[in-house]
Amino acid sequence: MLLTTPPGTPKTTPLVSVIVPVHDTEEYVRYSVDSILRQSYARLDIILIDDGSTDASAAILDEYTLRDDRVTVIHQTHAGAAKARNAGLDAARGAYVTFVNSDDILDRRYVELLLHAALRTGADLAKARWRQFGVARLYDVAEATAEGEREPEHVTVFTDALQAYQNVFCKSLRLVGTEFGRNTEARYFNDSCWGRLYRSTLWEGLRFPEDTSAHVTMTAGELYPRVGKVADIDVVLYHQLQHEGDEPPEHEFAYQHDMAAAAARNFDIAMAHGVLPARSYYALASACDAEPAAKDFDAPDMDASVRETHRAAYQSDLLALSRLTGRLTPAQRLRCTTTQLIRRFEHRMYWLRADLLKRDRKPWSSADMHIEDDGDAGAAGAVTATDRQEPDAPGAASTPRS
């Protein structure tokens, strides 16, 4: 599908709100905000939320209000990315909204191409591809993205967003589908909220839960049934900074328990809509496997009451897995377990390749492995500065790049 505009079509320039939660990213935030300010589409409502930063981030954000009247800064006590994004949604004035992490970089045509896709197709949600990069390439990526991407070669429109979210998540199956001409990659959603342009009405009455480290995953189940039409464009417009050496949050019990709760909720929602909850089954089963292996599940020096709380929560999650699995037919269960095995294999291969590259001291990203880790429970994805600071589950963070 081409996105050329017929001659004589009235030009519309809807306001687009760009929401950026910021917490202690003084080394990177200028790159991120500068990439927003230089967008080829200029009618922007830029909302920067300082989430109680303890470094120079807050002062840097305030400087931008003096440089550009499109910028609004909100200061709040440190409360996490969920509350910061909600503050941005409450303040947003645009007909469309997009989320950006404060250490990521946008292509110069990010808003332009996504908005054009949404307007030309009537989509409620437009999305593009992304690419990961390391800190050593920060300047190079900033320079390259300033040039602006090419026009998309393929624009894929589909209407079953919840079905796609739940069942198009194994990288190998996406590659097979695309090889057979089904363009399966275009139907893929990762468990993040960035890299997309949303019609603002999708968020009416919907906000990120602030009491969980899995706030983006928890919201997905309610969001996707609201989406009438999706437009995917095959260009890389979002560049995601990876921080090597960070402690993966999935080593902590609270993170896995939050992921289990989100997966169970999304499982129920999918079943209510007649959609096979393959992704939620994988996420819940993986979280249940990971919980007793968490470093703080049953530590020797742990308070007895905390240990008992963890054990009770783990048993509750196992019961939820059993209850929900019991709702599946034998054929549905076979499909869910098959995709679970495939995804786990992909996950192992991803990190095996990453470890090899690190030993060779070579720069790496998910593009090197050809298996883009999508941040499901049990997947040790990259953690960004924005999402390292979730306060509601001690030490937890969303993966990757929520």
List keywords for this structure.
disordered C terminus; 402 residues; single chain; nine-stranded mixed sheet; alpha/beta
Continuous helix count: 13
Shape: globular
Mean pLDDT: 87
Q: For the record, give the distance between the C-alpha atoms at the N and C termini, rounded to a whole number.
A: 30 Å
**Rg (CA only):** 21 Å
**Portion in helices:** 40-55%
Global structural class: alpha/beta
Q: How many β-strand stretches?
A: 9
The SSE order reads: EHEHEHEEHEHEHHEHEHHHHH
**Regions with pLDDT < 50 over 5+ consecutive residues?**
363-400
Percentage of residues in strands: 5-15%
Largest sheet: 9 strands, mixed
Structure summary:
The protein has 402 residues and is an alpha/beta fold. It has helices at residues 29-37, 57-67, 81-91, 110-121, 138-145, 161-167, 171-179, 215-223, 253-272, 278-290, 304-325, 330-359, 366-369; strands spanning 16-22, 44-51, 71-76, 96-99, 105-106, 125-134, 155-158, 196-199, 230-242. Strands 1, 2, 3, 4, 5, 6, 7, 8 and 9 form a nine-stranded mixed β-sheet that branches.
